[in-house]
Design goal:
209 residues; Arc Repressor Mutant, subunit A; 2 domains; three-stranded antiparallel beta sheet; 8 helices; 6 strands; globular
């Protein structure tokens, strides 16, 4: 390509590109509700392909989900993947299920799926019977991790009801990060994790020599 005909990127656009890529790397998504100006700028700039090109260079593939008003970054390099621990996987599976049922069965919009941690814990226990589930301190750590990764939002964090009455709002990103095509596949994955959890508990219960 002739350098003289290559479009230049202004200093302000370079700063916006840098901000967008850094946010996608750290948080996995850009949501319009959180960063309206940045999201709108990225949408306008999509036509020139620079953000997609830069994302590819750092090992990301962008999904432009305009219906949900979000830009999602899916890692294409194993170096960028974060492997969930078993308890994190169980929480992610339960969040996907509760989001899917709230939208399909209860008629809620994808922006309006929310419940207290108390209610979520009860449903988690129903889904994964006989497994050791996260204690409150660990559950807080998992939910805070998911909040940093743009999967949930935690509200009423200073409420008088304490941790159990905090509200989890599940974000539409859960559909893409935990991409089950149907409940049958969810059930298969659930059974696999339940089996893995049961086996790990059996190992941990063995007496030491």
């Amino acid at each position: 390509m002739n350098p003289e005909t290559t479009p230049t990127v202004s200093e302000s656009d370079q700063e916006r590109l840098r901000e967008a890529i850094q946010r996608l790397l750290v948080h996995g998504a850009i949501l319009r509700e959180d960063h309206r100006d940045l999201y709108d700028w990225c949408r306008v700039q999509r036509a020139n392909g620079k953000l997609d090109e830069l994302a590819t260079l750092v090992g990301l593939k962008l999904h432009w989900e305009h219906d949900y008003r979000l830009i999602l970054a899916m890692p294409q390099s194993s170096r960028l993947l974060r492997r969930f621990r078993l308890d994190e996987s169980l929480v992610a599976l339960a969040l996907w299920y509760d989001f899917d049922r709230a939208v399909k069965d209860d008629g809620k919009t994808p922006d309006d799926v929310a419940f207290t941690i108390r209610d979520f814990n009860e449903s988690l226990g129903t889904k994964f019977k006989d497994l050791i589930l996260p204690k409150p301190t660990r559950m807080r750590e998992i939910l805070q991790l998911f909040e940093r990764k743009s999967l949930v939002r935690l509200t009423d964090t200073a409420g008088a009801g304490g941790f159990a009455e905090m509200v989890i709002r599940v974000l539409p990103t859960i559909r893409f990060v935990v991409p089950f095509p149907n409940l049958e596949e969810w059930q298969r994955q659930r059974d696999r994790y339940v089996q893995a959890g049961a086996e790990s508990e059996e190992v941990s219960d063995e007496p030491e020599d």
